[in-house]
C-alpha cells in the first residue's frame, strides 16, 4: 500500500530568491529558512587541497581521462521533521523509509515540472543520496536506489491529499513518481554546510561540485548528479567531519 504523501518538494524550496514560473502553488507557498541560513556562511575554501588529492586519485584510476558530463545519479530531498500541510504530516525521514515493507516506497508528491522530468529520466538501479531538508541541520544521510521507473503519481487524483491536482487527468497524468529502496546509511552524516564549502572551493579551482544543483537550483527536490559529483560527495564519508 503506497505511503501517504509525506515527503518530497516541501524540503526543496530553500531558494525562494529564485522564482520558477512552472513551480506548483504548493511549492511557492513554503520556505526553507533553516537550510538557507545553514548554507549561507560555510568555511570558505576549506576543500581545495582535498579536491586536488581526490582528483589526483581519480585521474590515476582512469588514466587521466576526463569523465563525460552525464547525469546518472540523483539527490532526493525529504523532510525528517513533522510539518502539517492541509492537515497531513509531510514528514518522511530515512527511518520512515527503513520502516517500510522491503524498505521501499513510492517517491510521490513532486509538483515541479523540472523535478518531474528528472523523475522520468531515472533508470532502475541508479543510486541517489537521501537528503534531509527543511530541518535544523540539512544534509545527506543515506543512499537509496531506483527500483521502479516513472509511473503516474496516485496523489494527484486524491482530493484528500495535499498534492491533489484538479487539472490533471487520468488519461494524461501530469505528475509521475518512482519507487526507491534503501541501500545503506552513509558512514557519517554529510551536512549541507560541508558540501557548500567544497562547492565554493570548486567554483574557484574547477572541481566537480562547482555547478552542483544543490546550490545553483536549491528549490528542486529532485536533482541530478554526474558520476564525478556523486563520487566526490561519497568520498566525504571517509573524512573526519570539519
TrEMBL record:
EVE domain: residues covered: 73-235
Region entry Disordered, spans: 1-62
Compositional bias (Basic and acidic residues): 10-28
Keywords from the named record: Nucleus, Phosphoprotein
Cellular component terms per the entry's GO annotation: nucleus
Pfam families named among the record's database cross-references: EVE
InterPro entries documented for this protein: 5hmC_binding (IPR052181), EVE_domain (IPR002740), PUA-like_sf (IPR015947), THYN1-like_EVE (IPR047197)
Main location group: nucleus
Phosphoprotein keyword on record: yes
Domain of life: Eukaryota
Record's subcellular location: Nucleus
Compositionally biased region (Low complexity): 41-52
Role: Specifically binds 5-hydroxymethylcytosine (5hmC), suggesting that it acts as a specific reader of 5hmC.
Name the record gives this protein: Thymocyte nuclear protein 1
Species: Neopipo cinnamomea
